[in-house]
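Lab notebook, bench 4. The sequencing result for the construct came back, and we need a structural model before the next group meeting so we can plan mutations. Quick request posted to the team channel:

Model the 3D structure of this chain.
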Amino acid sequence: MKKVVSGVDEQIFLEDNIEKQLFHPNVIMKRGEAFFEKEEYNEALTEYNRFLDLFRNHVLAPYAAFKVGEVQLKLAKSIDRDPEPIQKAITAFERVRKDYPGSRYDAQAQQKLEDCHNWLAQMHLFVGQFYYRRGSYLAAAHRFEHIIKTYPDRLVAPDALYFLAMSYHELGADDWSRESLVLLANKYPNSTAVNDGNSLLAKLGGAKPGPQVAHKSDPSPIADIGVAAAGSPVSNLFSIPSPSGLGQAFTACRLGAWC
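Done. Here's the predicted structure in C-alpha cell form:
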C-alpha cells in the first residue's frame, strides 16, 4: 500500500532537499565563482570560506583556499591604503602551501606571496618618503630601515637605502649617511639610485666606494648588512638613535618614533 505523504511532510522533505542543494560543494563553489566574476568580492570571500569550513578535504579545497587569497588581493586598493587585505592574502597563500602542499596551486601561491611582499615593501617605501618630504626624518628612517632589514633583496631596497642615507644626513648623522651610501654602491651597483648616492657621498666628502670598507669603532646600524646571508632578513641590526645621541632637540610623535 502506497504511503500517503501529508502536506507538512512534503514541505519538510522539499526544504531538506533545497538545503542540501544550497550547501552542496559544487553549488557553493559556483556561487563563489559567480560573485568573483561580478566583482562582488566580499560575497565571493564568504562562499570560498564556507566551502573550506565544510569541505576542507574536498578535491576543490586547494582551489578555494587559493581563491581566498586572490579575493584579498582584489580588495587591496593601492600602496597608500590599508595594507590589511595584503596581510590577509599572505595568510591565505601560506595556508595553501601549508595545508595543501604539492597541489597544483602550490607554486602559484608562492608567486603570489612574492607579489604580496613586494607590495608591502613598496608601501613602506611610500610611507617613508612621505615622512621624509614632511621633514619627519627619524620616522622616515624607521621605515627605510625596516625595508633593509626585512626586504633586502626586493627591488625597492636600493631606493630605501638611498633615502635612509639622506635621512641620516638631515639628522646630522653624516657618518651613518656615508656608510649607507658606500653600502648602496657595493651591494646594489646596478641600481638607478647609485648615481644619486655617489653624488651625495661626494658632497659629504666620503671615500670612493670599494669592496673593502673600513668601519669606524662606532658603526652605523646597517654596518653588518653586507655580510648577511643573501635572501635572508637581516635582524637585530638597527637601533634608532636617541634624540640626545644625535645632539638635536626632538619631540615624540604619534608614531612612537622621534620626529
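The chain has two domains: 10-133, 137-259.
Will bring this to the meeting.
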